[in-house]
Specification:
mainly alpha; 3 helices; elongated
C-alpha cells in the first residue's frame, strides 16, 4: 500500500469517527433548551462544512499526480487539525452546558 493510500485510509477512518461524534452531538443537542440547541446546531454545521471540505480534498488526492498530492496532503492536514479543534471545542462546550444544568 502506498503512502498516499495509507494517508487516505487514515483520513477516512478519522472522518468516520468524526461523523459518529457529529451525529451524537446533534442528537444530544436536540434534547437541550432552544438557546443551547442553537449554539450546538451552529457548531455542528461548522463541523459538517469542514468535514465536507476534507472529503472533497480526499477525492482530489486519490486522482492527483505525485507532486500535486503532497500539496493536497498539506491542505487536508490543516483541515484535519481544524476539524479536530472544532470537535474538541464543541464537546467541551457541550459538557460545560450539561454541568451548568446540574
Amino acid at each position: 500500500m502506498s503512502t498516499r493510500d495509507k494517508y487516505i485510509e487514515m483520513a477516512k477512518a478519522q472522518l468516520d469517527e468524526w461523523n459518529a461524534t457529529i451525529d451524537k452531538l446533534e442528537a444530544e443537542s436536540k434534547k437541550e433548551k432552544a438557546e443551547m440547541q442553537l449554539k450546538y446546531e451552529t457548531q455542528v454545521k461548522e463541523m459538517k462544512v469542514k468535514r465536507d471540505e476534507l472529503q472533497e480534498k480526499l477525492k482530489k488526492i486519490s486522482g492527483a499526480t505525485d507532486d500535486a498530492w503532497e500539496t493536497l496532503k498539506d491542505e487536508s492536514g490543516k483541515l484535519l487539525d481544524q476539524m479536530k479543534g472544532t470537535l474538541v471545542e464543541t464537546k467541551e462546550a457541550f459538557l460545560a452546558g450539561l454541568n451548568e444544568k446540574k
